[in-house]
Specification:
single chain; alpha/beta; Rossmann fold; eight-stranded mixed beta sheet; two-stranded antiparallel ribbon; 11 helices
């Protein structure tokens, strides 16, 4: 009888180990897919629904992808380029009802056009565009997001477009870049700093930069966990890059005065990383801590209800 009980316990442990391993594999693959191939979302509204005058535009990247965007209030004297946060978003924003699977990061809508309206009300024009593999911009061969590394080419393309387009040529440019968009902007300036200085890029507002690795750790899977390692292997296998994009290696090459923004109570970030980004910025800079938001995605809506700091930074450096 004791032998039977012992064998039963061993059997249960073995089965539990198999189940746990299977769950880790499943979650690791799910998270890897989540980073690699973000789900598409429709466009429920256009800027016209917010009372804004706009036109549909397209422009090309150096690696021959066609990106799609909205050019709003193009006759303004200065233009802000908005780069969204990628993964589960497009230029319009983030829609709760279109989030697949069991993980619903946020319960509110994010409408970037509302922030664009704050900018147009202040006299700016705005270019909003879809990053590669998002919205209706063209997809790469593997359709994968890269945490800002390849997306740097999209930021470069957007700056070239505004700097050369007939109605915006020669105007001062500001950058409003969210999360992965902020990473992409850092990589873009490291790659082609001369473009940004010669194209009259005067100010950058970088909202909550974060690596995929830190985001996954915030879910509770540290870098030594099986889930993290499976996701890392899958991500690297399809993109050639680590989940931990080398953002800090790019930051000290930034050439544009930067307002770095971060929710202090954001549970999905690495505040040490954000502080390191700020310390390494070699330009005129300011750290703006959003004290009230308790959720990371609250920060993405922040400048609609609280545009003052954003406008202060752009007004200071662009006028």
């Amino acid at each position: 009888m004791k032998t039977i009980k012992r064998l039963t316990r061993i059997g249960l442990v073995f089965v539990s180990a198999i189940i746990l391993s299977s769950c880790a594999n499943m979650m690791g693959n799910f998270m890897g897919d989540n980073f690699l191939q973000p789900p598409e979302q429709p466009f429920p509204k256009t800027p016209e629904d917010y009372g804004l005058t706009y036109k549909d535009v397209t422009f090309e990247t150096d690696d021959n992808l066609t990106l799609s965007g909205w050019l709003i209030n193009e006759d303004a004297e200065q233009i802000i380029i908005m780069t969204h946060f990628g993964y589960r978003a497009n230029r319009f924003g983030y829609q709760v009802k279109h989030q697949p699977g069991p993980i619903k990061p946020y319960k509110e809508e994010i409408e970037f056009v509302k922030v664009a309206k704050r900018l147009t009300d202040a006299g700016y024009g705005v270019l909003m565009y879809d990053l590669r593999n998002h919205g209706i911009s063209e997809k790469t061969e593997n359709g994968c997001g890269t945490g800002g590394i390849d997306e740097a080419g999209d930021v470069i393309a957007a700056v070239k477009f505004v700097a050369n387009y007939k109605s915006t040529k020669g105007k001062n440019i500001g950058l409003l870049s969210y999360c992965m968009g902020a990473n992409a902007t850092f990589f873009a300036q490291a790659k082609n700093a001369e473009l940004f200085t010669k194209s009259n890029v005067k100010a950058l507002v970088a909202m909550q930069p974060l690596t995929n690795g830190d985001f996954l750790c915030a879910y509770g899977y540290d870098r030594d966990s099986k889930v993290f390692q499976i996701a890392e292997e899958k991500f690297k296998g399809q993109t050639g890059y680590s989940l931990d994009a080398p953002v800090l290696e790019q930051v000290d090459k930034v050439v544009t005065p930067t307002l770095l923004c971060q929710g202090r109570q954001d549970q999905w970030t690495n505040l040490d990383f954000v502080n390191a980004v700020y310390e390494k910025l070699p330009v005129e800079k300011e750290m703006y801590w959003m004290e009230e938001p308790t959720h990371r995605f609250d920060g993405y809506n922040w400048f609609y209800d609280h545009p003052e700091k954003m406008l202060e930074w752009f007004n200071k450096h662009m006028n």
